[in-house]
Specification:
CATH class of one domain: Alpha Beta
CATH superfamily of one domain: P-loop containing nucleotide triphosphate hydrolases
Oligomer: single chain
Radius of gyration: 32 Å
CATH topology of one domain: Rossmann fold
Number of helices: 24
Structural class: alpha/beta
Distance between the termini: 80 Å
Length: about 700
């Protein structure tokens, strides 16, 4: 007889979960909610613990119902006297609370069927929210907590300081609003907080007055006081900033310890000839910066310097001096710009100045014909091209620069660390000078460009008058056109600039062309006009700009190709069409095209309504100041540091908690501690730095994969 045994079905064991386990394994999450949480960067349980509240509500003060006032926020405790649905034009669920001093209606219009399951007659309930009056004191959609079954346990939603979390419409649809986040974060903290490893040595925590990490993680979510919430935030901010600065300190040390660079031994005749050719004397700021660069170039340590200065402050002349030092010592210099237009403008300027000094300058950009490119590559490889100006085309594999001694990178924030490194590798430890016309507050410059020495041209050439800036609506065209005629009649020249954004480039270009034809045939038919845009060939653009500079054109209609370019001292008016569509730094760059001569100059921002609130803030900022540093700070506040600096391109992570603008003092402390740590213990091998090394390698190294690039 065969006996068949039936095995019991064994329920699979739930996985052993820890901080790094997927968040879906938490009670109340599951796969669908986990997929939504991934959209806000929450993948693991650790990510959830570091999902920081955007702000807090203080609901600690309980008031008797008889004392609460209409049109204020209040928190009260009462017993459920009755509840139910009330019919009407808008059906609603109503709970009546009584605390012995008075009655309070709590009303829900939405989600009522979900809410009603929470209440029973006689329950003790805490509610918080704005108080209004409608047939008695009333709260609509209050936050609430049932106390009857809590036995005085932890409150989550009322009666304490309540965290409010960032959320989205999709998350809220799955009940992951602030209330929903509190429900999943609290048990996760209770279970996993003890697994959160400390990331800073006690010595640093003591010097900087920082909480232990576990205390900070709990305090950021459920603080006992508002001061406690702030101290928790400071600790978490410091962590991010410290490890960012640690990466920069290691990168800088690696650079300074690298094999010997080139020692440029002389400043020759060509530099003196250049200074004699100039129609002006260098400002004190330019002289100071030239000395800093020369000090770097003559030493064996490779220069790695940032040169920043406002529009029109004279960075190009400083760069030319550095180029001539390299050339006169028998080396080649390469200047890389982010766009072909900018590279072409640099090429025109540099070639124009250096041709009288017998220096060969060559352009290398992606749009060159194959034959022209091959010819340029041969001249570069043989060393015949002493100065090479180009775009990303310079870092392609087939570009061989035989004696590359100096690398200059313009508008550094638009390049990545890796691109800088590739160009540097074309030579043997060449000196590197990176330039930006986007002024940055010094503390922030030291952070974002923390591996570079910083030089600032903080002085404008003498005699430059401040450009008067006005913001006008589209309705003022007639008076603006009349003003332009007066300017031209008095010998001035005018730019009219149209926006060009990649998403709608063809439409924008068509609008610029049509506007030009209308102005030329209907408005300024008796004046000399020309159009310039990015789709024109290099030679055609050069001819137009040369004619404009020579005074042969009264009004130049342009897309943003003239954001950077040749000096036209006679240009006195800049009209920016659709000014509401431009970024703040771009508006400042465009305005810098005028005001380069002795005459009073003007920038007219023409905006078309309706305008977003952010666009209004940009226009107010540009109208209110011509100081590039103030404008940069306003831009930082509007856009945030990540977008302003293009952090991803620097091989840096986006900061999730810290803010480089508002946390300036923390940033300074973090920088001081990180650089001191690396100076004393470069490899982080000392026992007191074990925590730092472990944290860096497990938590940050992947984010800082470009630490060895520079």
């Amino acid at each position: 007889m065969n006996v068949v045994t039936r095995q019991k079905s064994v329920k699979p064991l739930s996985p052993q979960i820890d901080l790094f386990s997927p968040v879906q394994y938490l009670k109340g999450v599951g796969p669908k909610r986990a997929a939504l949480l991934r959209t806000v960067g929450i993948v693991s349980i650790e990510d959830l613990l570091y999902y920081i509240p955007r702000r807090y509500l203080d609901r600690r003060l309980l008031a008797p119902i008889s004392h609460i006032k209409v049109n204020t926020e209040a928190t009260v405790v009462g017993q459920v006297e009755t509840f139910g649905f009330t019919e009407g034009r808008r059906p609603r669920f109503v709970v009546i609370l009584n605390d012995g001093t008075g009655m309070l209606q709590c009303v829900w219009f939405q989600g009522a069927h979900f809410v009603q399951k929470a209440f029973h007659v006689g329950d003790t309930v805490v509610v918080s929210g704005p108080v209004r009056f409608y047939r008695g004191k009333q709260m609509t959609h209050p936050e609430f907590e049932i106390l009857s079954n809590s036995h005085g346990g932890d409150l989550l939603h009322t009666g304490r300081i309540i965290p409010l979390y960032p959320s989205t419409a999709e998350l809220k649809a799955r009940y992951l609003d602030s209330r929903g986040f509190r429900r999943i974060i609290k048990p996760a903290l209770d279970r996993f907080l003890k697994l959160v490893p400390e990331t800073l040595p006690e010595s640093i925590r003591e010097r900087c007055h920082l909480l232990p990490l576990c205390e900070a993680v709990r305090g950021i979510h459920f603080p006992e006081t508002m001061d406690g919430a702030e101290k928790a935030r400071q600790r978490l901010d410091f962590d991010e900033l410290f490890y960012l600065e640690l990466m920069l300190a290691r990168r800088k040390r690696k650079w300074t310890e690298a094999q010997d660079g080139i020692a440029f031994k002389k400043v020759g005749e060509k530099v003196r000839e250049l200074l004699d050719l100039l129609s002006f004397e260098l400002t004190e700021a330019q002289k100071r910066v030239v000395k800093e660069i020369w000090s770097d170039m003559k030493s064996k340590r490779s220069m790695n310097r940032l040169l920043q200065g406002d529009v029109g402050s004279g960075k190009t002349v400083v760069a030319l001096i550095a180029i001539l030092i390299a050339v006169e010592n028998g080396y080649q210099a390469a200047l890389m710009a982010p766009t072909e237009i900018l590279a072409e403008q640099h090429y025109l300027t540099v070639r124009h100045v250096l041709k009288d000094l017998g220096v060969t300058v060559i352009l290398l950009v992606g749009s060159m014909r194959k034959s022209s490119r091959q010819k340029a590559l041969e001249a570069i490889g043989k060393g015949e091209a002493e100065v090479i100006i180009g775009t990303h085309a310079l870092i392609q594999e087939d570009v061989a620069i035989g004696r590359l001694g100096l690398v200059i990178i313009d508008e550094q924030h638009r390049f990545g660390v890796q691109q800088r490194a590739i160009l540097r590798e074309k030579g043997l430890q060449p000196d590197v000078l990176v330039m930006t016309a986007t002024p940055i507050p010094r503390t922030l410059a030291l952070t974002v460009y923390g591996d570079l020495d910083v030089s600032v041209i903080d002085e404008m050439p003498p005699g430059r008058k401040e450009v008067k800036t006005v913001w006008k609506s589209d309705q003022h065209r007639d008076e603006i056109y009349s003003f332009l005629r007066d300017q031209v009649r008095n010998g001035g020249q005018v730019y009219i600039v149209y926006p060009l954004v990649e998403e709608s480039e063809k439409i924008d270009l068509k609008a610029a062309k049509e506007s030009y034809e209308h102005l030329r045939s209907e408005i300024f038919f008796d004046l000399r006009m020309a159009l310039i845009h990015g789709q024109m060939g290099s030679e055609a653009k050069d001819r137009v700009m040369a004619l404009f500079k020579a005074g042969g054109i009264d009004i130049l209609v342009s897309t943003t190709v003239i954001e950077v370019g040749v000096d036209v001292p006679n240009a006195t008016v800049m009209i920016i069409e659709h000014a509401e569509r431009f970024g703040l730094s771009q508006l400042h760059q465009l305005r810098g095209r005028v005001g380069r001569g002795p005459r009073q100059s003007y920038c007219i921002l023409l905006a078309r309504y309706p305008i977003s609130e952010e666009a209004k803030q940009r226009l107010r900022a540009i109208r209110g100041s011509t100081d590039g540093f103030k404008i940069a700070e306003a831009d930082l506040k509007l856009r945030g540091p990540g977008e302003f600096f293009g952090t991803r391109q620097h091989g840096m992570p986006e900061l999730k908690i810290a803010n480089m603008i508002t946390d300036a003092s923390l940033l300074s402390a973090a920088r001081r501690e990180a650089f001191s740590t690396v100076e004393q213990d470069p490899e982080l091998k000392a026992s007191e730095n074990t925590i730092i090394r472990r944290t860096f390698e497990t938590k940050y190294k992947g984010k800082f994969e470009l630490v060895d690039v520079g």
